[in-house]
Amino acid sequence: MRLEKTGACIAATPLYPEASMNEDRFRLVISTSNQDKLREVTEILSASWLELVPFSSFSGAPAPKEGSFSLEENALIKARTARDFTGLPSVGDDTGLEVDILDGKPGVFSSRYAGEKASYADNVSKLLDVLQSIPRQERAARFKCVVALALPGGKEKLFRGYCWGHLCFEPKGDNGFGYDPVFVPNGKKSTLAQLSPSLKNKLSHRGKALRSLKRHLRKMHEAS
Ligand code: IMP
User: Fold this and answer.
1) Which of 32, 143, 159, 169 is the most exposed place for a label (fewest CB within 10 A)?
2) How far apart are CA 71 and CA 94, in angstroms?
3) Are 161 and 93 in contact (CB under 8 A)?
4) Catalytic residue at 94?
């Protein structure tokens, strides 16, 4: 049976038992509607043996129904939704900013910290307001990224990556997205938004989680 990359729906029935191979490349569906994430995922995972296909390129692709329990649960929901619809190996990423003095908040609520339809700027502005009187030494935070891999045979695996640092007092830099302009990684004097995209990917939570995934996929690819 031939698979169409775009256009017609792909049967939800698994077409391959375990990993899905398209000739000699490993075909992987990326389940995200966030273009900033998709750009980073593509840069980090890019490899000659890997074919990355955005879930949004499948016509009729449903939006994953995320919950509010954990990053792990949300990453799995994104990956499963794409895997069940396409029958192909799929990955989902869920990321949160965890601030020590806020007991790990906004965490799983990072995208809607300032409300359901909040923009990146709204969320950053609320965070800076909340932390207004908090001194530098108490502004520690970390990004946690969870990447879920869902395979057609039913197997699933999670990969986690962290980036530790602190929150500064005003936004700086134009690169990156989300909370990058206010997050200074440990060992750096600049925010993530002031670093080049390749340097951010090298030390970021997403870079770490996705490189673990890539090693795992490479082993699967070599074993098939
Ligand atoms: P989600 O994983 O799509 O739910 O992302 C949650 C929110 O976290 C996003 O809306 C961004 O505001 C923020 N976020 C996710 N990844 C990053 C990142 O790499 N840097 C900065 N903020 C991020």
Assistant:
1) 169
2) 5
3) no
4) yes
**Could you give the C-alpha distances from 192 to 33, 84, 163, 201, 216, in angstroms and in order?**
22, 35, 10, 10, 27
**Alpha helices, DSSP H, located in the chain:** 35-45, 71-86, 120-130, 197-203, 205-223
Strands 90-99 and 25-31, by their bridges, are parallel
Structure tokens at 144: 């946690």
Report the alpha-carbon distance of residue 66 to residue 80 in Å, rounded: 11
For residue 180, the ligand 1 atom closest to its alpha carbon is 21
DSSP 144-159: EEEEEEE-TTS-EEEE
Between CA 85 and CA 98 the distance in angstroms is 32
**Residues 204/183, Cβ–Cβ less than 8 Å:** no
CB 156 within 8 A of CB 84: no
CA of 178 to the centre of ligand 1 (A): 5
- The per-residue pLDDT for range 51-93, each reduced to its tens digit, is 999 999 999 999 999 777 899 999 999 999 999 999 999 999 9
Domains annotated on the chain, with CATH: 21-223 (3.90.950.10)
Could you tell me if the CB of 123 is within 6 A of ligand 1? yes
Q: How many residues does the chain have?
A: 224
Cβ(166)–Cβ(191) below 8 Å = no
pLDDT at 5 over 50: no
